[in-house]
Amino acid sequence: MALMSMTGFGRARAELSDRYGASLVVRSVNHRYLDVQVRTNLREEMPEVEAVVRGEISDRLQRGRVTVQVNLEQAVAVGPRVTVNVEQIAAVLQQLTTIPTPDGIASAPSIGDVLAVPGMVNVSAQETTLDDDETSALRELIAAAVDSMVRMRAAEGQRLKEQIVAELNLVIEFVDWFEPRIEELRNTIMERAKERIQNLTTEGADPDRVLQEAAILADKADVAEEVVRLRAHFEAFSERLAGGCLL
Questions:
Q1: Cβ atoms 66, 59 nearer than 8 A
Q2: 46, 64, 130, 202: which sits with the fewest CB atoms below 10 Å from its CB?
Q3: The whole model's pTM is what?
């Protein structure tokens, strides 16, 4: 696994079918866990889109606050579905023609007379649910947008790795310079401690205080253990960089 940045951006667009086209924008920033936020222009009409997006993102990413903007475009304007009950209208017309007027002559019924009868014409919204092929195409589109984002995260991760390695090398160079001089620096500190203790003695300081001061200075002067520990951290960090991680 390469070193990956947590910040990325991806975009993709495709025709899902002869009914719908779709475009996706995927953004990610650093987050301890995976937090997916989905926005779509047909949220109320097509709630299944959000479930499809969340499922694909969860399968492909482990961490990050990921925002997905989904825009679905209708290839053809979809109007309401109108259903006409032809058999019932014929029956109503037949009955209306038999109703006499005050002068005793049956009149021809108008369209208004027919539509006034409940159930003659039904108007309903067109079905907007994605079919299996459209859902599969949407999954492929999500994968393409995520792959684009991952490539950006990998490129930024490589740049971050180069910067981190350069700064780590500077710290290692300092430790390489410092470690051979530990004994020399310790002696310098101890000489200064002796001078300080002598000054305290001439000033009539409490002997217990002098011993306490000497013990503190001697403890601070010995940093060999910290240098060994620091080198262990350098080694572990370098292995982590080489193995790849999220930044």
A1: no
A2: 202
A3: 0.63
Check residue 218 and give left, alpha or beta (phi > 0: left; psi -120 to 50: alpha). Answer: alpha
47 or 139: whose pLDDT is higher?
Answer: 139
Q: Is 114 left (phi over 0), alpha (psi -120 to 50) or beta?
A: alpha
- In degrees rounded to 5, what are phi and psi of residue 110? -95, 170
3-state DSSP call for residue 233?
A: helix
- Residues 85, 121: contact at Cβ < 8 Å? yes
pLDDT 10s digits, 97-144:
676 666 655 566 666 666 666 766 665 555 567 889 999 999 999 999
Note the helical H segments in the chain: 48-60, 86-96, 111-115, 132-178, 182-202, 207-221, 224-243
